[in-house]
Amino acid sequence: MGKDPQSSSRRTFYQRMIYGVSSLIAASLTVPAVGYLFPSRRKGNAGKGWTDAGDVSALPLNEPRELAFQRKRVDGWKTSTERATAWVVRTDRELIAFSPRCTHLGCGYHWETDNDRFVCPCHTSGFSITGEVLEGPAPRPLDRFETRTEGNRLWLGRVRTIPENGGQ
Amino acid sequence: MRDLIRRILDWVDHRTGFETAVKNFLYEDIPASSGWHQVFGSVALFLFFVQAFTGVLLAFNYAPQPGDAYHSLQYIVNQITGGRLIRGLHHWGSSLMVVVVGLHMIQVALWGAYKKPREATWILGVLLLLLVLAFGLTGYLLPWDNRAYWATVVTIQIAGLAPLFGEYLVEFLGGTEGVGVSTFTRFYTLHVLMLPALTVLVMMLHIHLVRKHGVTPSPRAIGKPKKKFYPGQAFKDLMAFFAVFILLFVLAATVDVPLERLADPSDSTYVPRPEWYFLFLFQMLKFFEGRWEVVGAVILPTLAVLALLAVPFLDRAKVKRIQQRTLAFAVVGVVLAGWLALTVAADLTTPEPVASARETSPGAADWRLLTPVELAGRAYFRREKCADCHNLAEGEPKMGPTLATVSQRKPTEWLMAHFGNPSEAVPGSPRPATTLSDEDLNGLAAFVLKLTPTNAAALEAVPPYAMRAAVIYQESQCGACHVVNGSGEESGPPLNGVGQRRTAEWLEEHFRDPQKFDPQSVMPPYDFPTGDMKAMVAYMQALPPELQ
Ligand code: FES
After folding, report:
1. What's the structural domain count of chain A?
2. pLDDT digits over B76-99, tens only?
3. Closest by alpha carbon to B104, among B153, B148, B169, B44?
4. Is residue A166 one of the residues assigned to a domain?
5. Which ligand 1 atom is nearest residue A137's CA?
6. Could you give the ipTM of this predicted complex?
């Protein structure tokens, strides 16, 4: 470690190069790593497409039923068929298909005929037959599938969230 | 501000000693003779970090199960941002690691830096070399493609040749029942858990010893004032990292690492080929036959490792200047030349595996050798108008890829998804969804997977009657009782060669009324309409006599 100006300027050069080059190496490794760990949604094709949820001609008026159906699921490198369900209600105005997950923390809920409401057992949220929150901690109405009917068959699309004030 | 940072650093240092430790490390005294030739050890350490980093990343999207491993790797390479690059870095990083560790050893050997009191450092170094090779060997299986599979079959065989403990070694590697799930899991665990842990441990000991004894000075540097590691030598190390990193990055970005087709234990034509740094061993095996095989496979390599370990004890002369170490140069030169000669010989005499595997796969060149499922697949290909967008063999360009060249890269699930709903598997694909059943789609996938660049033209020219018959064969479920070309159940007589045994009239009559010929027959009557009947009879007659 000489004190003369030449050696100290060389020392500065070394230091700058060391910082520069190590940052460059670190960056060229982290940038691809970030892309890799957070694969952008555009490449995925999950959630696209419609699923046949079955025949709904026998569905009674204002009586929610849980429909079970087979759904295709693209999960990473695997495309699999899995069993899925939806709570389906025929009201006098429309046919609604609810996602079977409570909007609070995702538990499964069920219909209680006596109470005339959907009840989630986890933290006792309650929802009306059209999905509005009646009680409990649920932050928003039940999520709904996009629906389409072909003849008697109900087709389900993606799940849509209804914001807090009921979709105005 | 500066003051505050200083105080925080002091506070931390007082409690942890981190800063002091880093400073001690950076301001280590090194001999005046240190220079560019001493960067290799650091570069190896750097590469180890790169391997650990990319390896962990790969593991984030990798399914460690045979089959799934292959598909998840395909997913990594084809779908994930940066996946191809990261796999490339890991793959080429392992090759560079072998090169750098080799250079490091050569440097130490030429300079005689293993001499007293640094024998233990050298021995740990040899251990690290073996660990690097073990990484290469175990990692080779993890893509679970044909190459991985067959190379590991050979590895396990060689392990089994080891005298006394060969059997146990094979058991340890999970290879008792042949290469399979157990082998895979063992290799995976070795590769990602045990070897890294061992390597870190041995590396720490190795570095500890390097620092304990200090960097070996050249005889002329003894007595001269010492230098500090930082920043002069640190700069040289880092420049070396940079050079290696650029090389690695360019390799990873430009040279595709092959992913062959899924491991196929029935592909007996496959000639496995090890990674380049094992080619010399592979070549050496060719010189030893029969019961001498153990010499090339186990005894010589073991002796070589023992010789390496013994180096510091064999050469105990006083430290000399590098210019005077002629013997060391001679020995290193001979070893390198031998290694190079064996490697080149191996490279020249081993056929390229990919081509041989697919081109000679039996029976693929003639539609008569397809199974009815595959042949029906060919019919669905026509019926579903796949040819609107795809060529089977090279031809005038169409919107979709030519299938003979593309099918090797897609797994069955992908194909099924694509047939079922093309725009889902290939966004933007204009074809409408198909109406075929899953079973039919399977047939289509089986057919597409059968395509190779060499047989596509032949498989394009299937006569219409054969396609028609194959569909009828499938619909009538003839395969539930009969075997054609090795596919189907065996409760009824096999149909290969039935055309040689029976006349067309007999066949037709037999379809209509099997019990007329054999009252015991359980075959139901098939009264096909004229056109269908003609096709079925012609198909039966076209079947090859026996499948070799
Ligand atoms: S998850 Fe349903 S109430 Fe909490």
Report:
1. 2
2. 998 888 999 999 999 999 999 999
3. B44
4. no
5. 3
6. 0.77
